């Protein structure tokens, strides 16, 4: 079960409890992929910090031989809403056999409209993977335009625009070492 984030437990509580998220999800992931050939694929740019914390934690949890790769998707640009047209860059060979015989775990910072993961799921499935699953740190379920359910979710969050820990507004704030809600007047 993902942890709810709302006005009463707020951003401060979220930041405090964030570090407790990782051990639980890491254990789930390690249990599910034990003995399998796993490749963890980060969705750039937003997932870069979560990806690095998650993969190190998975290695410490008992899967040191896990492989990594990246793809890039973007649709927000300088806006706080998806433009619906998700640009995908496979960051290397996009051949049919790129992940042949491997189990792919896509790593996302956030699911919002669902447009990005719907588009990526199709692109990744065509790369020959044995299975494709998704781990997302944040899930803004109330904003879905297309149905999408992640396999592992850190936190359910309300309809607020989030920055920090990899997430940006118009390419700024990605490097904040915590997540924060951007005040609407900053992007209205
Ligand atoms: O569910 P969605 O509405 O599609 O939103 C989620 C996606 O949007 C953001 O990417 P963005 O397009 O901002 O690119 P970025 O990762 O480079 O910031 C975020 O990192 C997710 O990949
Ligand atoms: O709340 C958000 N913040 C940053 N990037 C995003 N991409 C989708 N939703 C968000
Ligand atoms: Mg962005």
TrEMBL record:
Any GO CC annotation of this UniProt entry: cytosol
Compartments where found: Cytoplasm
Origin: domain of life: Eukaryota
Cofactor(s) listed in the protein's UniProt record: Mg(2+)
Keyword Cytoplasm among UniProt keywords: yes
Reaction(s) catalysed by this chain's protein: IMP + diphosphate = hypoxanthine + 5-phospho-alpha-D-ribose 1-diphosphate
Pfam annotation, one family: Pribosyltran
UniProt pathway: Purine metabolism; IMP biosynthesis via salvage pathway; IMP from hypoxanthine: step 1/1
Official protein name in the record: Hypoxanthine phosphoribosyltransferase
């Amino acid at each position: 079960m993902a942890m709810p984030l709302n006005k009463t437990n707020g951003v401060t509580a979220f930041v405090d409890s964030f570090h407790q998220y990782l051990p639980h999800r890491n254990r789930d992931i390690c249990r599910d992929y034990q003995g399998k050939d796993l490749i963890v694929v980060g969705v750039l740019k937003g997932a870069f910090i979560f990806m690095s914390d998650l993969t190190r934690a998975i290695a410490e949890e008992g899967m040191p031989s896990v492989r990594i790769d990246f793809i890039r998707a973007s649709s927000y640009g300088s806006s706080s809403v998806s433009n619906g047209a998700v640009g995908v860059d496979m960051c290397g060979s996009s051949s049919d056999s790129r992940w042949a015989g491997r189990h792919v775990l896509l790593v996302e910072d956030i699911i919002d409209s669902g447009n990005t993961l719907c588009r990526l799921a199709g692109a990744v499935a065509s790369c020959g993977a044995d299975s494709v699953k998704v781990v997302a740190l944040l899930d803004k379920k109330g904003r879905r335009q297309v149905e999408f359910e992640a396999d592992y979710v850190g936190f359910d969050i309300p309809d607020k625009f989030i920055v920090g820990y990899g997430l940006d507004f118009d390419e700024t704030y990605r490097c904040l070492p915590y997540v924060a809600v951007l005040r609407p007047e900053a992007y209205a």
